[in-house]
Amino acid sequence: MGCTSLTSITIPSSVTDIYGEAFKGCIRLTSITIPDNVKLLSINSFEGCLSLTDVTISKNIHGLTNSFLNCPNLKNVTIKGRYPSLTNLFDETNRHQVTLYGLAGSETEKYASKNGIKFEAINEDATPTAQPAPVSNSPSAWAAEQVNNAIEANLVPQNLQSAYIQATTRAEFASLAVTMYETITSREITERKTFDDTTDTNVEKAAAIGVVAGVGDNKFAPDSGLTREQAAVMLTNLAAAIGEPLAEQATIFADNGNISSWAVTQVGQIQSTGIMSGVGNNTFDPQGTYTREQSIVTVLRLYDIVK
User: Fold this and answer.
1) Which CATH superfamily is domain 17-122 in?
2) pLDDT value of residue 5
3) Are 26 and 2 contacting, i.e. CB atoms less than 8 angstroms apart?
4) Inter-residue contact 69 to 45 (CB < 8 Å)
5) What residue spans define the domains of the chain?
C-alpha cells in the first residue's frame, strides 16, 4: 500500500489471502496477476493505482468489492473464476473504457451486462478468445497534436516523451516547468531550494523561483502523484515567475467546495484562461490524477499565452 515506486510484483505460491487495500496508491504499478493459489482478495485492493492497465484475477477468488476505484488507465481485467461475487468494481474514471474478460455464462459476464461494461469471453485456460489490444505508448488521440507541438518546441524532456497516459509525479511536472521557464527566458536557473527527500535539480530549480513548494517538514514528495489542483497552482506560479501573471477570476465549478483553500484562486485563474478545464458535469475534480499528456498539453497552452 502506498509504494509509489513499485512497478511490478510476483505473488508467490505460498500466498492464499491478500487483505484490504493491499496495493492501494501504488501509482506506478502497471499490471498484475493474482495467481490461482490466492483465495481472498479483500476490498479496495487496487484503489488509486493510477498507472494500472491490466489485471488477471485468480480463478479461486470468491468475490471482489471496490477493487478498481480511481484507476483511470485501467483497460483489461480478466477474472478466471466462474462464480465470483462482484460488487462496485469500477467507477467513472474507468468503467467506460475497461474490458472484462471472463468465462461465458459466468458471474463476470452477468456483471458486465448489468453494468454496461464491455465483455469478452475467455477459454477455460483463461486465454481470451480475442486478445486484448496492446497498450499504446502514443498520446491519446485528443492530445497527440499538442504533445507533438510541445516536443517540437523543446518543452518536453526526453524522459517524459513516453508513457503519456501515466500519472505525472510532482518531480516530473517540475522538470516540465523548468524546461519551459528556461526556454521562454533564455536563462538557466542558477538558484536552488533544497529538500530533505530529493536532490532532483529540476525540483530545486523550480522551488527556487517559486513555481513549486514542499509538503511540510522540508520534504517535497517527488514521486507522489500530481493532483489537478496542484497542477493549477504550479502553472499559475510558473506564469508569474516568467513575468506574465494570469488574471484572477472566480471559479464556477459545481465542486468548488472540494478545492483546497490554497488552490481556489489559482483554479479560477487557470480556468479563465482556458489552460485547464473541468472533467465533465461542470466539475473540476481537484484531487483527481493528472497524466503526462495532460501536463504537457497545459504547459503548451501556457507557453502559447506567455511567449
Assistant:
1) Ribonuclease Inhibitor (3.80.10.10)
2) 87
3) yes
4) no
5) 17-122, 144-306
**Which three cell numbers, joined as nine digits, stand for 277?**
478545464
Cell 493505482 identifies what position? 49
Whether 117 and 100 have beta carbons less than 8 Å apart is answered as yes
State the Cα–Cα distance between residues 240 and 246, nearest whole angstrom.
7
The grid coordinates listed for 112 are 458486465
Q: How far apart are the first and last CA of the chain?
A: 42
Q: Which residues contact 234 (CB under 8 A, 6 or more apart)?
A: 173, 174, 177, 206, 211, 212
Helix 170-185 / helix 228-242 crossing angle, nearest 10 deg? 20
Three-state SS for 138? coil
With left for phi above 0 and alpha for psi between -120 and 50, is residue 243 left, alpha or beta?
Answer: left
- CB count, 10 Å around CB of 212? 27
Residues 6+ apart with CB under 8 A from 227: 286, 287, 288, 289, 290
> What would the grid cell of residue 274 be?
482556458
Per-residue pLDDT at 166: 86
* Inter-CA distances, 268 with 63, 94, 167, 176, 285, Å: 43, 27, 23, 22, 13
Are 18 and 88 within 8 A, CB to CB?
no
pTM for this prediction: 0.61
User: In the predicted model, what is the mean pLDDT of residues 161-166?
Assistant: 89
Grid cell 458486465 in the structure block, residue: 112
Q: Which residue has the cell 451486462?
A: 113
> Around Cβ 136, how many Cβ atoms within 10 Å?
9
Distance CA(160)–CA(174), nearest Å, equals: 12
What is the total residue count of the chain? Answer: 307
In 227-284, where does DSSP find H-type helix? 228-242, 264-272
